[in-house]
Design goal:
Two copies of one chain form a homodimer. Chain A has ten helices and eleven strands. The first copy, chain A, is an alpha/beta fold. The radius of gyration of chain A is 16 Å and the shape is globular.
Chain lengths: ~210, ~210
């Protein structure tokens, strides 16, 4: 399958690298393709690099790995024609570093970045997931406790969510993905970031995840 | 030990009942003592009921089990002289039901109820904890997975936090309490409520808790 990965930071590189390792063709969209030449040489020819529009056009399924503050503009650069009808797996968090550390959120409580993206691009099938843990664990949950910990999914389109859950299980090895409901439930997972950041500080490592014990 | 429990809803009754069962003397503070006469008859003579001021004066350690929207006013009614120098275990969440269901928060992101209480009563030792799970589990974590799940604690006073953690372990049976840091980390645990509410909906039960898998 062809994937488009928007954003070329740690999250974008990790997702793209894993998808390539799994045998898929991937195009990474970025504002500055030149800075990725070293990385691209490492990951091999199944990963190409281009503009946001080129990556969005290439992918049958898209990942939003841009920083939250730049997500809407990146998607606008990708272009509605390249987005419409597709699934966007939205990993971005609306972190606000402008007020110092730890970051706060640019949007929360009665709205979320996931909802903002869905409202801005109504024909895109936004599925929020993977935004509650560090990049390395997103694509390799078995690094912790035999993958016995939980991921959450939010979105308005039931079929799109089912496809994403199947992909997370098949390609990344996730066991449990809890469907929280429609895209408004992205408020809940984005609002996990403040405690996530503090847990990183308390535990002195980002290699942890939430498990819902019942 | 003598405890003062401010608030007489499900959380206050559950905490007071458990402390009484453990052999402590408890005074519950409420705006309307008359409505608690049936409950008081059940729990026995080690629990008394009175005003917020009477409960605060009685307790060597206090619990804030009022609704978040009424916490500051309840503490003002309790009176600074009855609060100063004591530990307040703050369980309240700033839930806002005025905008419909699910609730949003009246304060979050760059502030929290825990911080508001600490700012309003500087000589009170505010320790935020127990606010991330349902009342029944607060006092009996062994109901889930042999108590192998996590509680968080936030507060500015290290000694107060240590006393509270010891109390949670000794009286309620908690195994793991993660110290997130100062009272500003209460933002993180109060902001867990939106995903907690959605998890309740998705799982169809409030009998769950977070475990941090490392």
């Amino acid at each position: 399958m062809n994937f488009g990965v928007l954003g070329s930071g740690t999250v974008g590189q990790t997702i793209a690298g894993k998808l390539a390792e799994r045998g898929h063709a991937v195009k990474v969209g970025t504002r500055d393709a030149a800075k990725l030449s070293d990385w691209q040489a490492q990951v091999g020819t199944s990963v190409s690099v281009g503009s946001f529009a080129a990556a969005a056009a290439f992918g049958e399924i898209l990942f939003n790995c841009t920083s939250g503050s730049g997500s809407i503009s990146a998607l606008q650069m990708a272009g509605e024609a390249n987005l419409n009808g597709k699934i966007l797996i939205d990993i971005a968090n609306p972190l606000d570093f402008s007020k110092g550390m730890p970051p706060s959120l640019t949007v929360c409580n009665t709205d979320s970045l996931g909802e903002q993206i869905q409202r801005t691009f109504p024909a895109l099938k936004v599925v929020k997931t993977l935004n509650t843990l560090t990049a390395q664990l997103m694509v390799n949950p078995a690094l912790l406790n035999n993958a016995e910990h939980d991921l959450f999914v939010s979105g308005n389109d039931a079929d799109a969510k089912a496809q994403v859950v199947a992909l997370l299980q098949r390609e990344f090895g996730w066991k449990t993905v809890i469907d929280l409901g429609d895209i408004t439930t992205a408020r809940g997972t984005e609002m996990l970031l403040p405690v996530w950041v503090r847990l990183w500080g308390a535990l002195q490592t980002p290699m942890f995840n939430f498990k819902i014990v019942r």
